[in-house]
Amino acid sequence: MIVTVSREYGALSSSVSRIVAERLGYRLVDEQLPVVAAWRLGTSADVVETVSERPRSYGERVLDQLGGGMPEAVQPPDTDEFPVETRHAIEAAVREEASAGNAVIVGRSGHAILAGRTDLVRVYVHAPLRWRAARVAQSLHLDEAAARAEIARIDEARRTYARDGYRVTPGDPANYDLVIDTSRFGVDGAAAIVVAAVRAAAT
Known about the structure:
The protein has a 5-stranded parallel sheet with strand order 2-3-1-4-5, with helices on both faces. It is 57% helix and 12% strand. The N and C termini lie close together (11 Å). Helix 2 (32-41) packs across helix 3 and helix 7 crosses helix 8 (144-166). It has 203 residues and is α/β, with parallel strands linked by helices. It contains 9 helices and 5 strands; from the N terminus they run βαβααααβαβααβα. The radius of gyration is 17 Å and the shape is globular.
């Protein structure tokens, strides 16, 4: 089975994903995705991570529009704000990891890239903004205003990446099999729900 975990920033999805992978005995595919994509592109993982985690400048969008080419997975809108080559590399890395089976794949629109697989459980992890801001502030040693600004920046980049590349809206229940609020169930509780869902889907 393949589990894709999409998320709002600060909802502790990485912790949930790690526990799910441990309890199921699956591979956790998270930080290595930018590394694999970067290897394909001949660039650094930081470049790949930056592209999918922040809004792009006007100059970058203009340069992209002069490039051309299309992603292999889905036909995006004409205003795709992210480099086609980077999206190609991320899609290839996600498919490669999924082809090995039994994995928890975090982020990078994996739920859209792998859509149609019968062995797929698509999870969305979210939480109220105030709850997330408190955790981001503590983790990054920020005040609440700065934490909220960082959340807004990254969440918007992820929404744009998903919308421009795959015409999907993060958080829309129609795009997932399971939507979980970590503020309600906690990390362990959310992980237990995911594990139960995966085991039920596998039977």
